Design the sequence.
């Protein structure tokens, strides 16, 4: 007897598991039981598993009988005329949805010509084995799966035209590419998906060659002329939002220019952009430290005595200030109310981003890289026909990663650009490489995509032929201006007295064990004296009992809490974190005794 499980719960036994499974599938196709149900017979465990739970990934397949698909030409004509819908095909048992477990018992043919009598199902379209972003990668059947996956991930990080109503939205932090284009080489999914309504890249001329070592290790070389003409130019938007909150006792926040008697008042220059209502005006150019929206709040802690005294009128400063390293132009100011009826002020900041060294670009094939140098157009290499590449890509990125689709797109883009048409690069169903080569040859170019190229600085002809073509490149949201960070001295944490962490808090850069080794190996070991004293502190220690003594700064008196006054007390330089752990030992009842010795 074979055990049967429904959603992993045992419900009974059957004698003929194969027949039972076929009967259930037959009933499902006739519509007698739910289409949501899937069944799988595990021959090794001799168990039948039925599943109709939520959250399963299921995919549609055309049912095949005796080596022929049930979907006929008549069905397709009816679909085109609008006489039936896709849902009718599911109800008629022409298409069914299978989940991962039922897929173990089926044999799926890739295309109709692959069908044999053993096949049970046929793919609707081979490209449907991939998700949306992966199916946008052209010629992806010529690349390893890992690279196609990276290409799909990279497209999600690309800047583009994300929505048409961006001027009236207050999105968190978004980027907008100024002149996005539809790709010359595209897949069928680009049209189905409506990609031309929100493109996220630009078609550029790419040469595969090295340039003085500036495109080593995945770096790329950019043409300054292309940047001046608008390549990769984008805007960064970020909102500043403040509301007037109400507190207990009838106290409220107030959006205004803070008075000088307010606790935490900055300086007059910080408030210079604010209008009389305490809100900045549009198109103001602001830097870090400038106040965008002025606000004062009531004091944080009010005791019962303070409520009646007049001295409690001192409010505190709580304005919205530009963060460390930020700059931009005020794009849009909105004054409204929130659900509680409190005043709400929203200000949007705009910053133009022009590609610079360190910005990240990628093709759709997982070949990402950062700008290594921006070269003036007159120094860029040029072809015999006078074409200067917009971008130079290193040839070393191809052999180890085997992204042949990257190279085919270069040829496809070249053909499409020269003949003024879109090239179909749909996975498993693309234009053949042979046809593209023939067309390129008929257009007067070498069929292998290489050209004679001259050095832009000397005018000499390169000995090697350079592979050059057109390609769709994406600018990614990882820009160096959002990540660049340096600090000398700055804020420290209250508890450990060590520097704060992170760029937003103007934090320090941590130096670890391995970084220490590089300094020692370089012969700069004394630098560690400075690097490792971010929280140094001078502590008075009693030489009698070895505990931390007390130093009264006002009376300039030193005494030990255990031994009293008449004892030797010495100042010792230690890390504040060490002082903290001593305090923790004391709190557990452990007596940490410090025995002092002279250095010499």
Sequence:
């Amino acid at each position: 007897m074979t055990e049967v499980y429904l959603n992993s719960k045992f419900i009974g036994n059957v004698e003929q598991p194969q027949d039972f499974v076929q009967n259930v599938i037959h009933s499902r196709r006739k519509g007698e039981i739910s289409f949501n149900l899937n069944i799988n017979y595990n021959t090794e465990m001799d168990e039948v598993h039925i599943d109709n739970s939520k959250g399963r990934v299921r995919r549609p397949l055309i049912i095949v009988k005796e080596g022929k698909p049930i979907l006929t030409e008549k069905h397709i004509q009816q679909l085109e005329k609008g006489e039936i819908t896709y849902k009718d095909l599911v109800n008629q048992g022409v298409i069914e949805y299978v989940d991962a477990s039922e897929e173990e018992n089926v044999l799926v043919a890739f295309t109709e010509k692959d069908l044999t009598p053993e096949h049970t199902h046929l793919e609707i379209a081979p490209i449907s084995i991939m998700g949306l972003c992966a199916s946008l990668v052209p010629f992806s059947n010529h690349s390893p799966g890992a690279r196609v996956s990276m290409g799909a991930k990279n497209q999600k990080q690309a800047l583009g035209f994300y929505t048409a109503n961006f001027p009236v939205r207050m999105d968190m932090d978004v980027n907008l590419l100024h002149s996005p284009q539809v790709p010359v080489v595209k897949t069928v999914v680009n049209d189905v998906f409506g990609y031309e309504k929100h493109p996220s890249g630009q078609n550029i001329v790419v040469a595969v060659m090295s340039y003085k070592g500036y495109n080593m290790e995945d770096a790329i070389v950019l043409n300054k002329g292309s940047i001046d003409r608008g390549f990769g130019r984008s805007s960064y938007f970020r909102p500043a939002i403040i509301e007037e909150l109400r507190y207990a006792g009838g106290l409220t926040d107030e959006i205004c220019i803070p008075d000088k008697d307010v606790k935490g008042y900055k300086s007059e220059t910080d408030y210079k952009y604010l209008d009389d209502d305490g809100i900045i005006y549009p198109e103001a150019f602001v830097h870090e430290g400038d106040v965008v929206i002025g606000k004062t709040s009531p004091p944080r802690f009010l005791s019962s005595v303070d409520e009646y005294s007049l001295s409690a009128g001192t409010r505190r400063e709580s304005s919205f200030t530009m963060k460390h390293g930020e700059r931009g132009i005020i794009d849009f100011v909105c004054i409204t109310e929130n659900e509680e009826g409190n005043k709400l002020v929203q200000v949007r900041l705009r910053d133009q981003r022009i590609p610079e060294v360190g910005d990240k670009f990628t093709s759709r094939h997982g070949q990402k890289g950062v700008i290594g140098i921006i070269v003036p157009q007159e120094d860029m290499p040029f072809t015999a026909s006078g074409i200067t590449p917009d971008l130079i890509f290193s040839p070393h990125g191809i052999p180890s990663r085997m992204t042949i689709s990257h190279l085919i797109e270069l040829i496809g883009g070249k053909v499409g650009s020269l003949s003024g048409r879109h090239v179909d690069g749909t996975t498993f169903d693309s234009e053949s490489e042979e046809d593209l080569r023939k067309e390129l040859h008929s257009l007067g170019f070498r069929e292998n995509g290489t050209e004679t190229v001259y050095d832009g600085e000397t005018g000499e002809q390169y000995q090697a032929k350079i592979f050059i073509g057109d390609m769709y490149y994406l600018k990614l949201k990882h820009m160096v201006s959002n990540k660049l960070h340096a600090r000398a001295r700055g804020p420290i944490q209250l508890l450990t007295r060590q520097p704060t962490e992170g760029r937003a808090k103007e934090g320090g850069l941590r130096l670890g064990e391995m970084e220490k080794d590089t300094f020692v190996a370089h012969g700069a070991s004394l630098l560690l004296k400075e690097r490792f004293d971010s929280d140094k502190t001078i502590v008075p220690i009693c030489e009698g009992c070895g505990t931390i003594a007390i130093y009264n700064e006002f009376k300039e008196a030193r005494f030990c809490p255990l031994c009293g006054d008449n004892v030797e007390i010495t100042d010792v330089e230690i890390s504040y974190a060490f002082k903290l752990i001593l305090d923790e030992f004391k709190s557990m009842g452990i007596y940490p005794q410090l025995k002092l010795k002279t250095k010499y």
Remarks:
- The mean pLDDT is 92.
- DSSP finds 13 helices and 34 strands in the chain.
- The CA atoms of residues 4 and 295 lie 67 Å apart.
- The domain at 536-587 is CATH 3.90.1800.10 (DCoH-like).
